[in-house]
Amino acid sequence: MSQQIENTLVIEAYQAIAEEILAFVGENSWDEAGATYEIFGKMISSTWWSKYNSELDRLGSDIPRDVSKLAKEKIFFLRKHLLDLTGDRIWGLTFTLYPTGKFNIQYDYNKPKDYEETDYS
Domain spans of the chain? Predict the structure, then answer.
């Protein structure tokens, strides 16, 4: 796969995650919003949040199923892409989005202590 195609697929993954966060925020005012994902074999655990005037809010709008499904597919893509690229598997990521469109993404390479790959594969 060419570098340009890989870059496009990574950007599409980031856009899908951002869309899920925006769906969660809905019409609420926000200064930053984000999601934390734990990535298991075939399952992803997600938590979303937003901040406005430094106040944390974990209640948001319902996320449409198709938006959530696409974000999860793209997160699985990122897991495989980073494994292929670096040889290291990500076990989670935190994506923070700002109203300007800028974002920060942090990958978690630490395997959960009690995780057994056979439990979720």
Answer: 3-120
CA–CA separation, 45 and 22 (whole Å): 18
- For residue range 4-15, list pLDDT tens digits in order: 888 899 999 999
Domain 3-120 has CATH 3.30.500.20: yes
Handedness of CA 81, 84, 88, 91 (dihedral sign): positive
Q: Is 16 helix (H, G, I), strand (E, B) or coil?
A: helix
In tens, the pLDDT along 83-109 reads 999 999 999 999 999 999 999 999 999
Exposure of 46 in the CB half-sphere (CA atoms within 13 A)? 17
Return the percentage of the chain with pLDDT > 70, whole number.
Answer: 93
